[in-house]
Amino acid sequence: MNEPLDEEYVIQLDDSPPFSWIKAIPERFMSCGPPRKGNITVFTDGPLYSIAKMAEDILGDERITVVKGYKPGSSPGFKVIISHDGESRDAVPFIRNSGEKGMVVSVGGTIKRVAKENGWEYQSLPRGYPMKFLMPEIAGCLLSLGGFSLDYSSLSTFVNSLLPSSLSTENVSKRLARQLGNGGILFVYDRRSLGLSKRFVELLKMNSKVEAVAVDKNDASKIAGQGSNVNIISFCKDVKSSSNFSAWDFPYPCDDPYGYLKNAIIAEFSSIYLSLLLGIDTELVGIE
After folding, report:
1. Cα R_g (the chain), whole angstroms
2. Are the C-beta atoms of 203 and 173 separated by less than 8 Å?
3. Using one digit for the tens of pLDDT, what is the confidence trace for 190-221?
4. CA distances from 14 to 20, 23, 49, 202, 212 (A)
5. 286 pLDDT band (50/70/90 cuts)?
6. CA dihedral (96, 98, 99, 104) positive or negative
7. Phi then psi for 271, rounded to 5 degrees?
8. Listed residue (121, 105, 132) closest to 46, CA to CA
């Protein structure tokens, strides 16, 4: 059978954006300095919110709390503000008026100047990548602040196995994309994969223009009520042990940091492969 994702024009895309950006993920994980004591509260929005929630999955909500938006409150511990907009009308007043101290992660502009004027630490995001592709920078930054020290270079061989030049028989991201192209999509998550499920839902919408939903594994009524034309994708290894339905399981355990990141990289690639299957230009899709 002819495999569209193994056509010659596809397998030559390893070094073309956005595949080249994902290919570089192991080298792009960013450190934001030494670990901070106590709880870390992160304020962010847009596609960066689900990435920050991924760090919360790994570190645990007792170590890091992610808040959507930039509203000062009685949040504990070290504050981190992440914004891809250096002129943000919400983040800049937060820094200027909150009376707090912490770290700002952004691309420069007014937010950098205001951060320095108000005694906040500042960490630059790299330019050249669309905001939705900043997973390794944001996740790496928050994991380093939370005290996780990982050998990200060990992911290189795995990433290479998912590149366009890797044929579908050996490429789990291509096979998943083919499955996602047939029917609706429902993701099942547990407490260790909420952020990852949100991230994949957003990737599919941004890259492939496909709508998906995510439900907690304990909400059996929403899962069992799905028709046969719905793809149920599980981020949880034990989800089928107590439930009566068929699901495609992500191959790595989310309670292992390396396994979690491998599942996240599978999702990044699969959303792009699905866009190819649907005829959406992967170089032009949703560039901010």
Report:
1. 19
2. no
3. 889 999 999 999 999 999 999 998 988 887 56
4. 6, 8, 28, 23, 27
5. very low
6. negative
7. -65, -35
8. 132
Count Cβ neighbours within 10 Å for each residue of 51-64 and write b for 16 or more, e otherwise: bbbbbbbbbeeebb
Query: Which structure tokens are listed for 26?
Result: 């192991």
What SS3 class is residue 26? Answer: helix
Could you tell me the domains of the chain?
Answer: 4-15+155-277 (3.40.50.10490), 30-145 (3.40.50.10490)
Tell me the C-alpha to C-alpha distance, in Å, between residue 273 and each of 15, 103, 113, 172, 206: 15, 36, 40, 11, 13
Q: What is the pLDDT of residues 231-242, one digit of tens each?
A: 888 886 655 544
Read off the pTM: 0.92
The SS3 assignment for 1 reads: coil
Cα–Cα distance for residue pair 287/264, rounded to 1 Å? 20
- Mean pLDDT value across the chain: 89
Q: Mean of the pLDDT values across residues 118-146?
A: 95
State which amino acid sits at residue 270. S
